[in-house]
Amino acid sequence: MSEENSKLKERVRAFWQEHPCGTKFADAEPGSRRFYELVEEHRYTKEWHIRAAAGFANSKNLSVLEIGCGLGTDGAQFARAGANYTGVDLTQAAVDLAKRRFELFQLPGTFLVADAERLDFPDNSFDIVYSHGVLHHTPDTAAAVREIHRVLRPGGQAIVMLYHRNSYNYRVNISLLRRAGVHLLRWNPGVRLVNFLTGEPEDALREHARQLQMQPGYLNSEEFLSRNTDGAGNPLARVYSRAEARDLFKDFSRVELRTYFLNKRWLPLLGPVLPRSLESQMASRWGWHLWIYATKD
Ligand SMILES: C[S@@+](CC[C@H](N)C(=O)[O-])C[C@H]1O[C@@H](n2cnc3c(N)ncnc32)[C@H](O)[C@@H]1O
């Protein structure tokens, strides 16, 4: 790994160690039963496509590796469905919280701190490798995909979600609306206006305003993308077009792509009243989440 990538990886690890993914959506003591219940309720209400897209119900008796397990919310669904589940994450914080969830809810599973780019599993170990919203945060995504291919059994399937370049969220929300709106954050009434229009908490908006002032590269397109996906302090996020995703998974024999999730919070005014049927149709074209289903020969 280059020195540059290894420094960036350390920043990625430090960010997620400090902000375990999803904790901000639960107003309860992290690690408590109530905490996990709230996280789960929020996840499958807001991202209601996940259960079907991930196919938890089809994983009975299959060996499943999840890369970037976060709080173990999806992991718990695999374990409940009867999968033989292993979860890994770059951070100790995620592994501890996911392990705690499994203990509290008496689910079987194995957890390890591990780097997606260098997995410590033998070749041909798993039937399914699942990774949701993770590999666009690692410096060498292609290395992680090669590792997935290596640890999958022949006939096994990778199910990976990456952020989608040709999405409403990237093309319109991040690249136009947020980019224009960020200048409003320089003034207090602007912060309140953006909060009113989008529901984004004022403290998160103030953090963006701070980054805009302090970080000279904040408005560079790559930096702006990273800072406007998973929090103002997030050091790395990328987006992929369908063609870029196919290229990334070129060693797999069959690749199917689907897009989900419109992130309605960022559809000012229209979002709250959009019927689910129309939302699904729009998401299947311009959704923010690009799901890749790739089979190994
Ligand atoms: C946005 S969260 C997603 C967590 C979970 N999959 C979900 O959907 O809620 C990203 C997670 O990926 C983990 N991560 C980032 N880079 C990683 C890497 N190279 N190897 C393993 N995990 C990584 C982070 O520690 C963090 O827990």
Give me the CATH fold name of the largest domain: Rossmann fold
Proportion of residues in β-strands: 15-25%
Main beta-sheet annotation: 7 strands, mixed
Shape: globular
Total strands: the figure is 7
- Computed structural class: alpha/beta
**Helical run tally:** 12
Task: Give the helices and strands as they follow along the chain.
Answer: HHHEHEHEEHEHHHHHEHE
Provide the low-confidence segments as ranges: none
What is the CATH-assigned architecture of the largest domain? 3-Layer(aba) Sandwich
CATH fourth-tier homologous superfamily of the largest domain: Vaccinia Virus protein VP39
Give an overview in words.
The chain has 297 residues and is α/β, with parallel strands linked by helices. It folds into 2 domains: 220 residues, Vaccinia Virus protein VP39 (Rossmann fold), CATH 3.40.50.150; 60 residues, no CATH class. The chain is 44% helix and 16% strand. The chain has 12 helices and 7 strands. Strands 3-2-1-4-5-7-6 form a 7-stranded mixed sheet, sandwiched between helices. β1, α4 and β2 form a beta-alpha-beta unit. The longest helix has 16 residues. The chain starts with a helix and ends with a strand. Bound molecules: S-adenosylmethionine (SAM). The site of S-adenosylmethionine (SAM) has 20 residues, from α1.
